Amino acid sequence: MNYHFRQAEFSDASRIWIILQKAILRRKEDGSNQWQDGYPNSEVVLKDIEKGEAYVLVEGKTIIGYCAILVNDEPEYEKIEGNWLTNDDFVVFHRVAISEKYLGKGLAKIMIEYIEDFALKNNIFSVKADTNYDNIAMLKIFEKSGYSLCGEVYFRGSPRKAYEKVLTKAL
């Protein structure tokens, strides 16, 4: 397939929010408490775009996935119960969501590969992320993508599994 990954624009906000709303509903249907507390919401998406941290996975002109990418910016990660693999610069991604129509095609894994490429292009060799204990799909993606479980972090009072992948420089 012909996918590309780009920074989101304000004109993308409504499509991103539709994808996230359906992902929030899927998490609920899966019996998860992740994203069931009013977060993320449309204001979060707008703030991501405003800060230049919103990214979309696109097929042709259709937005099919969303995530936020931050560099060295996750205060909760400083309080990890456990140990990160590195203490250098890092990329962190949050709010990964794939359009309902595109589920089951490995697109979250593809999006994470784009995030890793983003890190390498910025000479950053660590990618960190977290997810709920009950987000089985994301836990499997971390495992298949070579991420190491480093400990636990807390968001809005809930424990989350924290992962890191150390990237190698391209030859």
Automatic annotation (TrEMBL):
Gene3D superfamilies membership: 3.40.630.30
UniProt xrefs under Pfam families: Acetyltransf_1
Organism in which the protein naturally occurs: Flavobacterium soyangense
GO MF annotation list: acyltransferase activity, transferring groups other than amino-acyl groups
Name this polypeptide is given: GNAT family N-acetyltransferase
PROSITE patterns given in the database record: GNAT (PS51186)
InterPro entries: Acyl_CoA_acyltransferase, GNAT_dom
Residues covered by the N-acetyltransferase domain: 3-170
Taxonomy, superkingdom: Bacteria
